[in-house]
Amino acid sequence: MDLDTVFERAGPRAFSPKDDLPQEYREAATRMIQFHANSEIMGAYLERPFIRQAPSLDRKLAFSAKVQDEIGHGQLLYRAAESLGVKTREQMLDELANGKGKFLNCFHYPMKNWWEVPMIGFFVDGAAMRRQATLKDTSWEPYAHAMDKICFEEGFHIKHGEHILRELGTGPKKHQELVQDAFEEWWPRIIQFFGPTNDKSVHHDFASKVGLKRKSNDELRNEFLTVYIPKAERYGLEIPEYPRINFDEETGSYEVIEEDLDWDEFFQIAKNEYEPGLGQINTRKAAQDAVEWVTESLENTGPTPQAAD
Asked: Do the beta carbons of residue 193 and residue 173 sit within 8 Å?
């Protein structure tokens, strides 16, 4: 199948492993899904400490379930990427541990305090759902199937994060101040979650033409702002003065002034060569190295002998 045919057929769930697809499509799809899988894994590592740090048993159980979900999402996505025949799951995991695998900007930053939890659990997960819901109609069928399960579970994650935000936002004045401080620090990163603006996005045009992406970064960002700014205000959060955000009274929608966002920092951390992201990657590498002997033992163990008749 040539690219012109791919462009013509690029609808929802248009292609599967049985199709003879051009290498350019396979590589673009692999890059996109691998990025998504890496982000699920790194998001889980960011939230893992709160399994112990959560203030109640119910919260600890919820965080344990969430981290398990995110790791499972990553594995589903690695398999969907692997089905394209470009890289194996093991190669992609090694690239992540060695700093070659890219992942979402938000997961480069450490999260140390309980009042930061809703920044990921509500806002980032909410942003993720805006993107992931559109990927149920991506053109690579295994990716779309994975998104059916992932979106179902992410809905619970968002509700959990919203519940924590509600508790903090309606709690003592000190709690309200702490969550406001966290919001002001994380807000620019959250807005940049969707990636660079359309004119700076390297891969958008091709991914859109072949049906891998269903909406642009700018479309998703504006949709997120329109839904989540009122939600933030509902729980007592004040939207920071910068980055500036315009409200269109006729359409009822919000749009960020892109020049107010620090895109230099965004592109720098994307290289995986600087702090704070480098520290996150090293944590992941240490964890992978710590269990390498288990993987090697399993690989070196032959098939289980069959019992004698």
From this structure: no
Q: Which of 93, 56, 104, 75 is nearest to 269 (CA)?
A: 104
Contact between 76 and 12 under an 8 Å Cβ cutoff? The reply is no
Q: Could you give the 3-state DSSP secondary structure of residue 253?
A: strand
CATH superfamily entry for domain 3-290? Ferritin, core subunit, four-helix bundle (1.20.1260.10)
In the block, tokens 């709160």 appear at: 50
- What pTM does this model have? 0.88
Digit-coded pLDDT (tens) for 110-123:
888 999 999 999 99
DSSP string, 60-120: HHHHHHHHHHHHHHHHHHHHHHHTTSS--HHHHHHHHHTT-S---GGGGS---SGGGHHII
CA–CA separation, 17 and 204 (whole Å): 23
Cα–Cα distance for residue pair 286/292, rounded to 1 Å: 10
d(CA 38, CA 77): 9
Residue extents of the structural domains in the chain = 3-290
Measured CA to CA, the distance from residue 226 to residue 219 in angstroms comes to 11
Nearest to 26 by CA among 3, 44, 55: 3
At 3 the pLDDT is 85
Which tokens belong to 234?
């509902």
pLDDT of residue 309: 47
The amino acid sitting at 207 is A
Amino acid, res. 26? R
pLDDT digits (tens, 9 = 90+) for 194-251: 988 877 777 888 999 999 998 999 899 999 999 999 999 999 999 999 899 998 888 8
Report helix, strand or coil for 188: helix
